[in-house]
Every structure is written in structure tokens, then in C-alpha cells.
Amino acid sequence: MASDLGITHLILEMDSFLVVHMLQAKKGVEGLAWTLFSDILHLLRTFSEYHVQHTFREGNFAADYMVAIGQNFSHGITMFPEPPVELTGNGDLKGKGEDVNNEVKAELQGNEVRTDGKEENGGLENPKGVEEYGDDNNKEERQPDEETGIKLKEAKKKLLWMSKRKMN
């Protein structure tokens, strides 16, 4: 759907540190979840540039809201061409794909968004975030504390459950 809006530069935020780490490393889990993981990577590669980053659960209110209203729909995929009014304030996002794309490109580059659609520092040379989010060679290994370790185990269980559900 993002590509249908003309978005070519994507920032994917999620509250599962384990999944973020796997997507950044481009190394998934073995078994049933591999199919789901591989599908996600394939979709991400359709964008000119993408970054996957962690957000705390408290910052992921939009996803929580969508899950809550999704309980009212039948099983399967329900697409929302525009976010619900409760999330945007006005619900009118038609024709905003280019604006969103410019904002994401500017954030990736550390530039300010200009109203004329041009970035302050121009181009995509050395975009901010490549080393920060995707370069495995320079990444320090971070050991999760006990609470994070528990959350990682829960995330892995969720990912496996999702892949089993997809297989059925």
C-alpha cells in the first residue's frame, strides 16, 4: 500500500526489539517463521531505501489502536487506504504520498523538510541511518537486560505463532 501511494523511502517502526534486530541483520529464525520473515524482507526491498527501527510500546499507540478496531472485522486482511480519523485528526491523506516521502527522506538524511519539496543538503549521498540501523560490521553487540530478554522471548513466540497462523 505504501508503494501505491508513491512512497519510495520507508521507515518501519515496531515495538518488537527481536524482530527489528532480525530485519536489520537480514537474518531470520529457522522453521515456520522463515516464510513470514522472508516475505517481509521481500516487501522491504521494493523500496528505494528503508530503515527498520525500534520504538517503545508506549510510542506505538497507532498500532495498538488498529489492533483494537481490528477485533471488529472478520478474519483475513482488511486494508485501510487512509488512517482512521481518530489517528490523524482529519482523515484526509489523499495525494499526500509525496509529502510523506519527502518527510521520510529528510529524516533519513537528517535534513529539514522544506515546503518546496527539496532537501536542505540535497540528494541521498551518505543518508543518515545506514550505519545506525543497517551496518552489521560496525554494530556493537548489545546484551539485553533481564526485562528485555523476557520481551525478546515473548516476541519470538508471537512471531512463531503468526507464521503458524499464516500457514493454516
From TrEMBL:
- GO MF annotation list: nucleic acid binding; RNA-DNA hybrid ribonuclease activity
Top-rank lineage group of the source organism: Eukaryota
Comp. bias (Basic and acidic residues): 93-106, 128-142
**Region Disordered: start and end of each range?**
84-154
Q: Give start and end of each RNase H type-1 domain.
A: 2-67
In Swiss-Prot or TrEMBL terms, this protein is called RNase H type-1 domain-containing protein
Species this protein is from: Rubroshorea leprosula
Q: What is the lineage of its organism?
A: Eukaryota, Viridiplantae, Streptophyta, Embryophyta, Tracheophyta
